[in-house]
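Holo model, PRP. Inputs:
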Amino acid sequence: MEGGKRQRVLFSKEEISKRVKELGDEISLEYKGKNLVIISLLRGSFIFAADLVREISIPVEIDFITISSYENDETSSGIVEIIHDLRMSIEGKDVLIVDDICDSGYTLKKVIEYLSGKNPNSISVCVMLDKPSRRKIQLKPKFIGYSIPDVFIVGYGLNYGTHYRNIPYIFTFD
Ligand SMILES: O=P(O)(O)OC[C@H]1O[C@H](OP(=O)(O)OP(=O)(O)O)[C@H](O)[C@@H]1O
Ligand code: HPA
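Output:
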């Protein structure tokens, strides 16, 4: 309970695990024979990315970027900052950005623009959750776990304030 609110589970641990395996299979097929680099956006994607890379059956490099826009708010400030940069070169590589959620799209837009400047061979996006109705800019992730309506989501890496990222299922507060 959060301030008297009740949790409503949208995707169980078992459903998530099945869907992540499907995404891993799709990605393995799509990137066979390519130089795949997964870039996980911290902090929100740490759990999804950790599960996803273990379902990928082809060689893959992994790096991280830390970004922030929401602070502890429920609405994007629109100002997306890169707090920690990549450690590896992505020049000539096939980059797959992995994030927990695409909401306004500001975060992914900023990261795509930023990474484009590092001359990768390609850039695509994989998100566990997509909220297309909230989009402020045009952007469609190539791989999507679940498309969801406009509800504030918590768990499986997604926070409410400073908590709940460790909850193994995805839920909302009613
Ligand atoms: O499409 P958008 O409206 O930009 O929202 C999506 C982003 O917002 C959250 O990050 P946040 O800035 O809260 O940082 P976090 O990853 O540390 O939770 C989430 O993890 C996504 O990266
Ligand atoms: O629904 C959400 N939940 C948590 N963090 C978020 N960041 C963007 N959208 C969300």
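Residues 23 and 172 are 23 Å apart (CA to CA). Residues 70, 101, 103, 152-154, 158-159 surround hypoxanthine (ligand 2) (CB under 6 Å).
Archived with the compound record.
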